[in-house]
Write a sequence for this structure.
């Protein structure tokens, strides 16, 4: 059984072995999703169940089972907790409370962008993050239709690999004037308050992409520079943000609340409320301040 050891100063012993297993889980889940996406799965048609929080498909369930089985086989449940979009709802309150006090927790979204998966945009992703004391130390984001897997470890940088095993180090763009930046946003999940905010921010271009993981991938691929999340009646969840945050920050970007505070995970409330700013980092504080000022005017 693999046990990680914290060495201090954001250093961990054993991360390389752990990230290899997480990458394998990411690729395996990506292949499962691709088989459902193309209708080649041996498990039949893509069954879709509409829940109040959004659609859940047989592909979500199959990928989730594969990831959990892979991780739990290698890491067990004594020292590691597991927070997954597909299993969290079924946890009892005592189990949720126990999970909250686990120092090491895997946070998993087996299919981020389910609606895009159903609509066949190709913009869906697998998120796997390992969190220690509320902050991510390892992350995998697989983009199945791009045949790319992004991974990062704390203080170890971000890399992208292909199915053939070709690995490349990633870095965000150097664009450093707000007027030169490109925004990546969702096609859906935008209320009028959010649309007003976007209209008043002076970005050069706007791109529309599904899945948080795919959006952050476009930033570390230097195709965009900024992603903004603004909660309304609902909010993004821990599993939406944990893995994308680390692959961005380790590529040189920043991902914070509008007030500059870091995102914290596995804190009991799985929702990430308020305004969240992800960027290439060069104008991050100015963007956060500008967005806060605009929202203050909108909310008068």
């Amino acid at each position: 059984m693999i046990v990680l050891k914290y060495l201090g100063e954001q250093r961990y012993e054993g991360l390389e072995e752990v990230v290899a297993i997480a990458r394998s889980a990411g690729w395996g889940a990506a292949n499962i999703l691709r088989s459902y996406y193309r209708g080649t799965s041996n498990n039949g048609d893509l069954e879709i169940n509409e829940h109040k929080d959004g659609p859940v498909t047989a592909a979500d369930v199959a990928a989730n089972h594969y990831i959990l089985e892979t991780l739990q086989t290698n890491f067990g449940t004594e020292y590691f907790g597991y927070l997954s979009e597909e299993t969290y709802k079924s946890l009892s309150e005592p189990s949720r409370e126990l999970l909250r006090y686990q120092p090491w927790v895997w946070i998993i979204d087996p299919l981020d962008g389910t609606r895009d998966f159903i609509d066949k945009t190709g913009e869906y992703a697998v998120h796997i993050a390992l969190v220690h004391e509320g902050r991510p130390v390892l992350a995998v984001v697989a983009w199945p239709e791009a045949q790319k897997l992004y991974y990062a470890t704390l203080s170890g940088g971000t890399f992208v690999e292909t199915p053939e095993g070709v690995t490349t180090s990633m870095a965000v763009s150097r664009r450093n004037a707000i007027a030169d930046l490109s925004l990546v946003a969702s096609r859906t999940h935008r209320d009028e308050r959010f649309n007003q905010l976007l209209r008043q921010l002076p970005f050069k271009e706007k791109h529309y992409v599904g899945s948080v993981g795919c959006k952050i991938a476009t930033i570390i691929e230097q195709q965009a520079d900024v992603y903004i999340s603004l909660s309304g009646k609902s909010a993004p969840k821990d599993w939406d943000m944990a893995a994308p945050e680390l692959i961005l920050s380790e590529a040189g970007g920043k991902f914070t609340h509008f007030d500059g505070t870091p995102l914290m995970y596995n804190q009991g409330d799985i929702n990430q409320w308020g305004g969240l700013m992800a960027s290439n980092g060069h104008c991050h504080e100015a963007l956060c301040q500008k967005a806060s000022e605009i929202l203050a005017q909108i909310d008068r």
Notes: The domain at 5-169 is CATH 3.30.540.10 (Fructose-1,6-Bisphosphatase; Chain A, domain 1).
